[in-house]
Each structure stands twice: as structure tokens, then as C-alpha cells.
Amino acid sequence: MESGCIFCKIIAGEIPAEKVYEDDEILAFRDIQPAAPTHVLLIPKAHIPTVDDLEAGQDELIGRILRTAAVVARQEGLEAGYRLVTNCGRGAGQEVFHLHVHLLGGRPFGWPPG
Ligand code: 5GP
Ligand code: ZN
């Protein structure tokens, strides 16, 4: 729990969120400003600011987050495909400095991303 971190507050239940998956280490909830019909954020419960801060001991956690994204995508009926995005750093558009994976689906996606 990092004081001042909005996602830590969601984990602690201090800020409400629409949860779609939760276990001991991972929480997934709907983005408050959805950029697609399905827009879920998957986060570790541990406060890790960015991908740059990952340590070797967290490899399994990150693998589980990706596999959980696939479970949630199935739950959401995203058979046509989906996109996973992690912004790292302000230059890439990261606004919340608690590591998260965006799961986006339900519409076509262009490439390269904006
Ligand atoms: P970033 O720009 O850091 O990659 O993504 C942060 C995401 O968190 C944004 O898509 C934003 O809409 C979402 N977000 C920010 N504050 C809240 C909140 O209080 N609740 C929820 N559910 N999503 C939030
Ligand atoms: Zn946090």
C-alpha cells in the first residue's frame, strides 16, 4: 500500500471499482474512462510503479497477470481478439504509477497504436 496511489486505494477498498477478477495477488477492474467496449485494468496487489521497477522474483506474477488477462478476455466474450497494453513512463502515456495491463476489446484496433 503506497499512500497517494489511486490503485492501492482501490485494492484497499477505499475507492470503489467494478471488479471482474480478484485473487491474493491480482485485481482486475473496469477502467473508469473506457477506451473500448471492454476496458479492464489488471494490476498486481503489490505496489510496483512501472515495468522498469520489476524484479526477477516477480516474473511469475507478471506471467499470471497475462494469463489472467486471457481468462478475463474469455469471460468478456472477446473471441474476435483483444489488445493488451502497458504504458511505461510519462512519454508513453502512463498516468497512474502502479503497474497495470490494459485489456481492450470489442472493437477493431489499428496498428501502429497512437
Ligand atoms: P495509464 O495512462 O497510466 O496507462 O492508465 C491509467 C488508466 O487508469 C486510465 O485508462 C484511466 O482511465 C484509469 N483510471 C484512473 N483513475 C481511475 C479510477 O479511479 N478508477 C478506475 N476504474 N480507473 C481509473
Ligand atoms: Zn499502488
Descriptive notes:
This protein has helices spanning 6-11, 59-75, and strands spanning 19-22, 26-30, 38-44, 82-85, 101-105. It has 114 residues and is of the alpha+beta class. It has a single domain, classed as HIT-like (HIT family, subunit A). It has a five-stranded antiparallel beta sheet, covered by helices on one side. It binds guanosine-5'-monophosphate and zinc ion. Guanosine-5'-monophosphate (5GP) binds at residues 6, 15, 17, 29-33, 41, 87, 93-96.
Briefly, what is this?
By secondary structure, the chain is an alpha+beta fold.
Q: What is the name of the CATH class? A: Alpha Beta
Q: Provide the CATH superfamily.
A: HIT-like
Order of helices and strands: HEEEHEE
Q: What CATH architecture do you see? A: 2-Layer Sandwich
Instruction: List the bound ligands.
Output: guanosine-5'-monophosphate, zinc ion
- In CATH terms, what is the fold-level topology? HIT family, subunit A
Task: Give the arrangement of secondary structure elements.
Layout: H1 6-11, E1 19-22, E2 26-30, E3 38-44, H2 59-75, E4 82-85, E5 101-105
Bound molecules: guanosine-5'-monophosphate (5GP) and zinc ion (ZN).
Any key phrases for this structure?
114 residues, HIT family, subunit A, 2 helices, binds guanosine-5'-monophosphate, binds zinc ion
